[in-house]
Amino acid sequence: MRTRLFLGSLLLLLVPGLVTGTSVAVPDSSRTTGVQASGLGPDPYWPKDGNAGTDALHYSINVSYDFAKKRLSGRTAARMRATRDLRGFSMDLLLKATKVTVDGVPARFRKSSTHELRITPATPIAAGEVFRVVVNYAGRPSRLSYAGQRSWLADRHEVVTMNQPHMAPWWFPSNDHPSDKATYDIKVTAPRAKRVVSNGTMISRKVKGAKATTHWRMRDPMATYLAFFAAGDFTIEKGRSAAGIRYYNAVSKRLPAATRKMALRKLRRTASITDWLQARLGRYPFTSTGGLVTSLDVGFALENQTRPTYGAWIDRDLMVHELAHQWFGDSVSVSRWRDIWLNEGLATYMELDHAEAHGGPSVNSWLHRGYVETCGDVDAPFWRLDLTDPGADNIFDAAVYHRGAMVIAALRNRIGESDLTRVLRTWVSAHHDSNASVPQFEALAEEISGKSLKGFFDAWLRAGKVPAATPANGITRSCPA
Q1: How many CA atoms lie within 13 A of 412 on its CB side?
Q2: Where is this region: Disordered (predicted)?
């Protein structure tokens, strides 16, 4: 995610890039199997998110949206594995459930809270057993809120289900935590004049009377907040990048003609940006790329898996950021929300890398200029925030993005460009389609560089003060007196 506000500050200083390199093997033991799925307890930032005891494997979502009534109705079948013996389990859903079955048998259900759907199957489920739960539900998502968020984004002509950290409960029941990833089939029924865009690959579009049902499939595991659909009047362009990656782009026809033309022209850069990132970071992790520009008044862009969504204020740096998230955030997802700087700091760094590679200032000049301009204010929140545990209210703080990128830029100075390239390429290959944490990233950097980096990471991530300008911290320009 990146908001419109970030376009003004430190990012205008722009920065350089990495070089491709070889990767080293990381043992499978470093892979995270999933916080919620493994029953290790709730995420402290949002304890109601996700549900211990079940591991989601696949969601088959079938929804219909009525623009006039602002009403969504749906039927979601989730294939799950029990991670312990279950007499009952929960799913995250804000809409009203009307029917639930488990393995084809009606189950008891109730809303234990606005956010939680508690399900009691007719027969207890044994640990390790794979079962299928089907939930029918309906309601007006625009009326619903959770954790201070009203995430539904729609008007009389267009709807886009985009938000972070919470979006899924407004339109399908799930284990709503990034540690419990699953594959998806998403079917959306809307007026036949509308086009429907979602994650992955479009399988079919079937017209029946005044309605059309569009089927999209996401074959790679995906976090729940990255699942999306958009329905509206869209101009569609599709094809392949120079490297052969399929792309599918959509721009709202509701935008003014000049804005629409400009947005479509910018969105065409998706293919070349994806190819460039692949050359930097290693194989693109999914089967398709692309993007969608909405006419709705949205103040942020979001890295929906394979198909980021943007407002009309789309630009090249923003696209690099969201497309970099396909590696950092989508393929390699956080273990818990406290690890968010790994997503945002790395995606912001890739903006700077791309800018340098295309004639912009170097990463090092950006790093040192940013350091000199901020280091004089020792009590600034920008430096006080603990990036390894920013708190639920601060996961999108500017420090998470900008200081996060500074960490990577300084790390390059500390261990060298070649080793940093190996770290990033190994990170995304070792944790492909999985989850990872900040301690794992720190350990990988030490393993590849052969250097002790505890002091470096403590200074940049956790110290709560301006890092000293020393070679050990990757800074060579002193703070002005």
Answers
A1: 25
A2: 26-45
pLDDT at 29: 31
391: left (phi over 0), alpha (psi -120 to 50) or beta: left
Q: Is the peptide bond before 173 cis (omega within 30 degrees of 0)?
A: no
- Could you write out the DSSP letters of every residue in 286-314? SSEEEEEE-SS--SEEB--TTS-EE-TT-
Model confidence over 150-160: pLDDT tens digits? 999 999 999 99
Is pLDDT above 60 for 28?
no
**133 or 32: which carries more pLDDT confidence?**
133
Beta bridge partners of 229: 198
**Taking the complete model, does pTM exceed 0.90, yes or no?**
yes
d(CA 122, CA 19): 57
Taking phi first (over 0 means left), then psi (-120 to 50 degrees means alpha), and beta for anything else, what does residue 209 get? left
The residue written with tokens 């002091």 in the block is 455
CB distance 211 to 90 below 8 Å? no
The total of other beta-carbon atoms located within 10 Å of residue 156's CB is 8
Q: For the chain, which domains are there? A: 2-32+335-473 (1.10.390.10), 36-222 (2.60.40.1730), 233-329 (1.10.390.10)
280's tokens: 């930097």
Distance CA 247, CA 274 (A): 10
